[in-house]
Amino acid sequence: MANQNRLEQDIETLRNISDPCDGGVTRIGLTPRYRQGVNYIKAQMQAVGLTIREDEVGNVYGIMQGTHPTLPSIISGSHLDTVKNAGAFDGIAGVVCALEVARMLKEQNIQLKHNYEVVAFVEEEGTHFGTVLLGSRYITGELNEVDKDRLRNDEGQTLRQILQQYSTGVTTISAKRDPQTIKAFLELHDEQGPVLEATKTDIGIVDNIVAIGQLVITITGFAGHAGTVPMTMRQDAGIAGCQFVSHLNQYTLRKYAEQATLTVGKFSLSPNSANTIPNQCTFTLDIRSGDEKIVHNIIKHVSSLALIINDEFNVVCEVKQVSFKDPVVMDSGLRQLLQATAEDLGLSVRHLNSGAGHDAMIMSGICPTAMIFIPCYKGITHHPDENVTWQDMAKGTDVLFNTIIQLDKK
Amino acid sequence: MANQNRLEQDIETLRNISDPCDGGVTRIGLTPRYRQGVNYIKAQMQAVGLTIREDEVGNVYGIMQGTHPTLPSIISGSHLDTVKNAGAFDGIAGVVCALEVARMLKEQNIQLKHNYEVVAFVEEEGTHFGTVLLGSRYITGELNEVDKDRLRNDEGQTLRQILQQYSTGVTTISAKRDPQTIKAFLELHDEQGPVLEATKTDIGIVDNIVAIGQLVITITGFAGHAGTVPMTMRQDAGIAGCQFVSHLNQYTLRKYAEQATLTVGKFSLSPNSANTIPNQCTFTLDIRSGDEKIVHNIIKHVSSLALIINDEFNVVCEVKQVSFKDPVVMDSGLRQLLQATAEDLGLSVRHLNSGAGHDAMIMSGICPTAMIFIPCYKGITHHPDENVTWQDMAKGTDVLFNTIIQLDKK
Known about the structure:
Two copies of one chain form a homodimer. By secondary structure, chain A is α+β, with helices and mostly antiparallel strands. Chain A is built from twelve helices and 16 strands. The first copy, chain A, has helices spanning 4-16, 32-47, 92-107, 134-140, 145-150, 159-167, 195-198, 237-256, 292-313, 332-344, 359-363, 390-409; strands spanning 51-54, 60-64, 73-79, 116-121, 182-190, 203-209, 211-220, 224-225, 260-263, 267-270, 276-277, 280-289, 316-325, 328-329, 349-354, 369-374. Chain A starts with a helix and ends with a helix. Chains A, B: Zn(2+) 1 binds at residues 79, 90, 189.
């Protein structure tokens, strides 16, 4: 069994390695504060006897050598960086639980055939350079030398300049990994959503990381004085926008309540004056589903709806697709193994999609990959109130531990 | 018949007396530029032989003495100030047409029994001191000496300080009028709405200046990640707001399409991030009707709707009434006289409510008051594109002229 006290000790220590902020944790990748966090994790890794490796961009590994060290590694971990004023679990829980697995292996004198690597990815949140999943994208080779001069922080410094300050004398080990060196990657993460908690489920197994369509809708009408233009003669872009959103929301709920999410995160009117009929309304649509066909269906509906709104409100809707990300399927063998392991431990399991991106999404490009979700309080994340119980962390660690042992035999 | 060339000459001259702006007119009350506009109007008044009077706050009168100068005056006019980057007709048309009536009386050697006063109110728009209808409110006594020290412009100068710069050596005549000195006030104004133009009507007669209820609705939900919180588990303040607005709009259209206006001019989300479920939505409601009971009914519906939205979206709607202005009824005798006069001239007439406030609203507190609306292009106002045809201005002036002659006989 995982040791809850050790999990708590790691999380609480890292919670306190933070730049000053509003009650949460701020430990942005490749900053002096991040180095402090890395130093703590490295010390814990060394205490278990792991061999430390830090690559050129700051990803940190703690390696437990297997009895057959030429076999590819089993890797587990997550990211150690945070957004500004974050909670203490997003990413960190995955690193800490993978580290706990190493402790358990040592404690129980279990010798794996494969190397077991605990990884702490850097800059997953993208807070420092505006590029999410930076560490894992260097590992897969999606980012490379060129990007070190291209990527700049808010102060205009390049990634290369920051790395020189951050890593001086530490490492020049290439980040890019040969896929042949990895047997599997397992990432444990708090759900960042409310489903597991609400359904009293111990363990979530991620099937897909969802497809994401992002659109911006701009509706142009005609401004007028609130008191002098009769309602029937208006070209009110704001009312048209509210109707558009209401209709699309109802459609998505009716057809895809369990399979997709539609989010209108930004919505603004122009001129945004209490006594002026808005001549322009702009809003964003964020459409996600494990099934990319559903995202396409909803986008198709958006286009049809635009025509109806144009006609009904005498406005012009412009529909602009900003981006489309294909879904990423997790490895089915690993998913089955996770499920069997969790059930053997008597834990309840739920399959779900990950609506957020994770390093696992990137790693799946070079190796079999799967994710374990553990419940988090009310689904709150990127907020000081993010919370995971030590018991749930321990359950997740146990699943990870047993899965790695099973995987090692294959 | 009114002389269209003279009307054009006045409007175009005043259009060019403007501070630099984006294609429109900027002549804010009590500024040096405003003094230039006043000087032009005074010169025109003097050319017709009117006696000039400028009061302590900058309202300007041109008085044509009647054969029975102890009788109360018939007054007509409007305001000479503009908003920033305004059109050339809002307010100005009423001053210019009233001035043209004086020219027509002189031209036709008509001697009225009553004094006829052409008035140019100051600071109706409230652009300088944030207080609308300033000039007329000094005339009725609603504003007084105390307000000269209380009202401040954006630079922190008091109205008294600005008046000292503006009026030095010009006048100390009290603005406040004894109601006994006024027989009637008639204000001609462009409609600032699209109804007369769309219905091809020559003359609008204002029945009421509408009651106005202004509310702010704040909806509080719960934030979450766009990808990780299933739609059925959300407390999405933005979707709740859009549904609220859509529903209320449909209700108002269904019940009061011709009798009321509902405007949602401001609408905002928090945190207003594309991939975050909004935890707060705030919007304004501007509800107007000639019948204050209808405004109250709609406000009552808002409260009921808030309860439904709370229940349906698991949010909390706070309904705050910011202000309520009672409707102002125009004098029925004057309205009948205006209608009879317009019909005698073979002009089409439509009764409507004024959805905007006007000096007439204030003047009605101390004397019988009525308003003539003339068509304006697409209802555009407070914009450089505001436009009124010279023909429509002339028709309005003819109605004003004939009404004043009839009124003089009573």
